[in-house]
Amino acid sequence: MKRFVILIAAVLLTAAAACAAEIAVIDADRILVQSLPGQKGQKHLEQVQKILQKGYDDLAAAWRGREKTADGQKALAHAQLILERQMQAERSAVLTVLNAELAAAAESWRKKNPGTLAVTGRQTVYAFAPQIDVTSAVLREMNRRSPRFAPLPSVTVKKPPQRARKN
Q: What is the pLDDT of residues 47-75, one digit of tens each?
């Protein structure tokens, strides 16, 4: 009988511990916008945009006077496509770095709060009690992080062929 009572007590303690375990919720979008790493990512993308735009402007200047020719239109359209793809790749790379930093910040917070089994984004939760929203705490953890973004790109402008001179 004594063993049975001990077994029941162990089951009840396990059940109580399971009920005490929490899932925390964060607003990932808010953290990515308001955090220092998120702001650094935005500044990085602004620098990338300036570099890519200057490359396009330099190409357009090189084709000035011939931009309406078939070759000029083709060169400018091709450059625009390439630069848009590069900008998308840069955005994706920055977001990948920031998401990794956010995951590390959330895990750091979770380890400091051992009763928490998981941290999930509020974008994936339909309803939750406000007391499990730990966005501010994870934002503070995120602000301690120093993301490293890819080096800024460089753009090389290929000059159009010289026009044949008329004699």
A: 999 999 999 999 999 999 998 999 999 99
H or E stretch including 164? none
Domains of the chain (ranges; CATH) run 22-143 (3.30.910.20)
Looking from the CA of 145 toward its CB, the CA atoms found within 13 Å total 29
Cα radius of gyration rounded to whole Å, the chain: 27
Cα separation, 28 vs 9, in Å, equals 40
Contact 60/158 with Cβ under 8 angstroms?
Answer: no
In whole angstroms, what is the distance from residue 24 CA to residue 119 CA?
5
CA distance 160 to 158: 6
pTM of the model: 0.80
Of 125, 107, 124, give the one whose Cα is nearest residue 116.
Answer: 107
Helix (H) or strand (E) holding 166: none
Question: What DSSP designation does 114 have?
Answer: T
Of 108, 112, 117, nearest to 21 (Cα)? 117
Return the residue matching tokens 């301690």.
Answer: 144
